[in-house]
Each structure stands twice: as structure tokens, then as C-alpha cells.
Design a protein that fits this description.
Chain lengths: 115, 111
């Protein structure tokens, strides 16, 4: 069984401030972990993914996430927020089986960026 | 290369009506998925397919049926729509590498 918990359904930061979106996972087998972003009225777009290689994963648009097994976390960060980062962010987990597997999503965190 | 496309983009149904949502992908992916997205609940898997002619149930399959007659298409059917099926529906596809690519979504309202 696997699950994802995203702490904070809404996060507000000022433009230029650090973005930190939290994700904790539970998985009975080694996981693959993903962050997706959803802009208003659009589908989900992959930001980055962890597939058991480097624990620090760099994604698009300046985002990165660090896999911490001891903390069962995969938090998403960006050093400096931009207005265009305002969107909803979803963390997801799938079991590391080597084949495409069902994703389990968190409930999402809506990021607001203010001037 | 259009990626994943969904038809229609919006639809309003009356309770008891039926409809089919079409998902098409041009990436030659083996795997396809249907999700629903509801406020505060993230995305939940309805049905999925690991290849042409195969389908399987996801987390919330009740009230839905699917078919994968062609590799590039994955259809989601509602035989008798209910207000509880008001949602945004997303289709996704992937190869064996676990990265799923999503379509733009279909917003369905059942009155």
C-alpha cells in the first residue's frame, strides 16, 4: 500500500522568497516519487521525478526536490518564487517495480505568489 | 505531436444519461489511465490499461466502464450518470518508465 500526505493545502509566499512545499510518503516497497504542477484549467505537467538515482532531483522552472528515506519525505523547493509559479502542485508515489504503475496522488497544495 | 488529447472539453448531462469520453495519445504508449479530480481530494484512478484489449479497475471504478480497442485510444463510459460523477476527468498515458503524461481534462457536470 502507498499513500502521500501534502502538508498545507494553501501556501502563500512573496515574489522572490523561498518556496517550500511538503510531501511525505508511505510505501511498502522502494518508491518512485513525482511532483506535478497544474496551472488553472490545464492538465498536469511533470516537474520532476525520483527513480532511485540521485537523491537531489532537479526539475523544470528552477524547482528541485530531495528524497530523504529516513524522513520519508520528498519536499519541493525553489530558491526564489516568481509570479508565474502560482499553481497547484501535486506529489505522487508509485512502487518501484520497473514497470509503469498506478500513481497515488496527494491532495495538492495551491501556491499563491504575492508582490 | 499532440501528446494526449481529450474529447470533449466540457459536457453537461442530466441524471441517468450516458456518455463516452475519448482519450487519444500519439506517443505509442502502452499504458493509459483515467482519473477524476475533485476539490480537496487530488486525483483518483478510475480505470487503467496496460495494453490494447486490456483494462483493469483502479481506486474508484464504480459507475464507469472503459475500453481499449486501439492502442492509441482509451474510452471512458458513463452508462447512467449521477450527480456524484460531476468532476474533472483526466486521461494519462505512459511507457514503462513510470512518467505519466496528462491530457487537458474534461469538465463534466451532471444535473
Amino acid at each position: 500500500a502507498q499513500s502521500v500526505t501534502q502538508l498545507g493545502s494553501h501556501v502563500s509566499v512573496s515574489e522572490g522568497a523561498l518556496v517550500l512545499l511538503r510531501c511525505n510518503y508511505s510505501s511498502s516497497v522502494p518508491p518512485y516519487l513525482f511532483w506535478y504542477v497544474q496551472y488553472p484549467n490545464q492538465g498536469l505537467q511533470l516537474l520532476l521525478k525520483y527513480t532511485s538515482a540521485a537523491t537531489l532531483v532537479k526539475g523544470i522552472n528552477g524547482f528541485e526536490a530531495e528524497f530523504k528515506k529516513s524522513e520519508t519525505s520528498f519536499h519541493l523547493t525553489k530558491p526564489s518564487a516568481h509570479m508565474s509559479d502560482a499553481a497547484e502542485y501535486f506529489c505522487a508515489v508509485s512502487p518501484n517495480t520497473g514497470t509503469a504503475s498506478k500513481l497515488t496522488f496527494g491532495t495538492g497544495t495551491r501556491l499563491q505568489v504575492t508582490l | 505531436n499532440a501528446g494526449v488529447t481529450q474529447t470533449p472539453k466540457f459536457r453537461v448531462l442530466k441524471t441517468g444519461q450516458s456518455m463516452t469520453l475519448l482519450c487519444a495519445q500519439d506517443m505509442n504508449h502502452e499504458y493509459m489511465y483515467w482519473y477524476r479530480q475533485d476539490p480537496g481530494m487530488g486525483l483518483r484512478l478510475i480505470h487503467y490499461s496496460v495494453g490494447e484489449g486490456t483494462t483493469a479497475k483502479g481506486e474508484v471504478p464504480d459507475g464507469y466502464n472503459v475500453s481499449r480497442l486501439k492502442k492509441q485510444n482509451f474510452l471512458l463510459g458513463l452508462e447512467s450518470a449521477a450527480p456524484s460523477q460531476t468532476s474533472v476527468y483526466f486521461c494519462a498515458s505512459s511507457s514503462h518508465t513510470d512518467t505519466q503524461y496528462f491530457g487537458p481534462g474534461t469538465r463534466l457536470t451532471v444535473l
